[in-house]
Write a structure and sequence with these properties.
The complex is a heterodimer of chains A (156) and B (241). Chain A has 156 residues and is mostly helical. Chain A folds into two domains: 113 residues; 35 residues, no CATH class. Helices cover 71% and strands 0% of the residues of chain A. Chain A has six helices and no strands. Chain A is flat and about 65 Å long. By secondary structure, chain B is mainly α. In chain B, a hairpin with a 4-residue loop joins β1 and β2. Classes of the chains: A mainly alpha (156), B mainly alpha (241). The interface between A and B is large, with 82 and 86 residues.
Amino acid sequence: MEFHDNYPQYEVMSNHGEEEGKKGRKTLWNVFWVMLAITIFELIIGFMAPSQGWSGTWWLKTLFITLTIVKAAAIVIWFMHLGHEVKFFKYIILMPYLVFMLYTIFIILTEGTYAGSSGNLTRVDPIFVKQQEELRSGHGHHAEPATGAAAEESHH
Amino acid sequence: MSHTAEIDVKEAWGGGQSPFRISYGKLFMWFFLVSDALTFGGLLVSYGFIRHKYAEVWPKAENVFTHFPFVEQHIPLAYVGLMTFILIMSSVTMVLAVEAGHRMDKRGVTVWMFWTIIGGLAFVGSQAWEWYHFIVGTDAGALRNVWDMEKGAYVQQVFHGANMTTNEYGVPQFANYFFFITGFHGTHVFSGVVLNFIIFLNVLKGTYQKRGHYEMVEKVGLYWHFVDLVWVFVFTFFYLL
């Protein structure tokens, strides 16, 4: 084989034959079907949540975040091929990111608990503070159209 | 894969070879993606912070994004479900292009890259449509304090849709984060389409066939999967939770 640049040999070694390709494609399609199934499941649950009173429950949040991480892992491991790289390289990529993100999430959850309490509201234009109060008390949520039927329709 | 087999740990760092068994270009694409992932991570974490702070007045996504093309009824989540499907599908066609590249199958790479580009354009178009409906808003609108240029003061009036300061559906922060995070992601998708297109032209010209490997397809593939990866998180935190 002729080379027109000085790429190291192992890159070309990652080329594979017909047999190996068939197996690889099967894995990739399986990953796709699983991811599609998870997404459809999430949508169905998300669609049912408001009428079933599931919205905002802790188990629903946990379920969605877990499924998201499962999908993200599938993309990184199989689509981005990280599962097949050298072990040391996996750590170099994943460890710094996980340490930073877990710490950021931890600190933001801690701080967020204080920031939400009254007396710690950000100093902003008074008109927005007033608007927030109105939204909290339920006023100004939606304009009142003339008739009840029209209201039903526009509120969907 | 085959190239992980024969590494001697003691020799690996001695020079003249990659200790990671990965080429320079791919290594730095990974480093770039880690830094980009930190940016998106920071944005999403700050989104979580603000959302937590305004928890009671935060709009519910299923009440905001209810439109679907050519359908009169309001179907929450359906459109974003379609967008997610398009992006996951284009991720699959990308990885199939990479796989075809490993077999030096020029035709395979061409076909799969073509579908990836189509998928990317479809996604960007869908996002534009979603933005349009969010900005225009509902017919009913809502009472909001809107800045009046002539009076030089805020005036309460019926406001439709959303912009950076006023949001019909709830607190303006929702619109701010929606525009910023999906906009930043959309910019990534668009750049991904451009990069894919450049590589696609090179595939057509036979540049990589001559070179003996399709590693460039692999590199843009990494970027493309990353875009899909970010969307998985945006989808969950903006639309599902």
